[in-house]
Amino acid sequence: MAESEAAAAQRRGIKSFVVRAGRMGTGQIKALAELGPRFVLPYQPAAPLNYEAVFGRQAPVVLEIGFGMGGATAQIAQTLADHDFIGCEVHEPGVGALLKLIGEQGIPNIRIFQHDAVEVLEQMIPKASLAGIHIFFPDPWHKKRHNKRRLIQPAFVAKLVEHLAPGGYLHCATDWQPYAEQMLEVLGAEPQLQNTAESYAEKPAYRPLTKFENRGIKLGHGVWDLVFRRR
Ligand SMILES: C[S@@+](CC[C@H](N)C(=O)[O-])C[C@H]1O[C@@H](n2cnc3c(N)ncnc32)[C@H](O)[C@@H]1O
After folding, report:
1. The domain at 61-230 falls in which architecture?
2. Is 34 annotated for ligand binding?
């Protein structure tokens, strides 16, 4: 079968993000300096994590891709305090913002990679190890010629699934209907995944409103959640 344009783009290393310059607030700068060494993990190729060593306990681990400013991540980590969370975000002010929340709220169960989640997944997350994966409001890449940058496409979803433990879940949400339809199609076509709902899912109670979602709602967008499980 011919390789799809999207799969070829991922193979060529086309990224799902563009690193934007963003102004760091003084609180974010302080949090990076003071809390970064403890909560930000260094990216290292071919170095699978030992979760127990990282978190100092045994608990189910959830990976989040693209936490933005981290408000939802901080809330979820407190709601699901018996889980440990690994958040990936390339936007430095977002990393600073989440560290600030970790410090202010004394959240022990989050670690951060300021690095491309695609590489973190491949190089540092052990296969079949994750209890869950959260991908909330990934960049929609609206323009047709940019669609190839979208995260949710067959080749990457197959990689995500490999890293889920059996029964582990993949929870995606978007406010962009064409992307929601793509998610439903791609996740539905992955043989190792089973939809937990007939089609789109009810928003799970642990997911609060995210910053990006709020922006979408103000623009009149709908919101679609999808929750699939590894068979
Ligand atoms: C549209 S924002 C949504 C942020 C947040 N989840 C929310 O709902 O408010 C998407 C975020 O994903 C990040 N991102 C995109 N691709 C990524 C990747 N491969 N690795 C890490 N972060 C990524 C971007 O930097 C951006 O902050």
Report:
1. 3-Layer(aba) Sandwich (3.40)
2. no
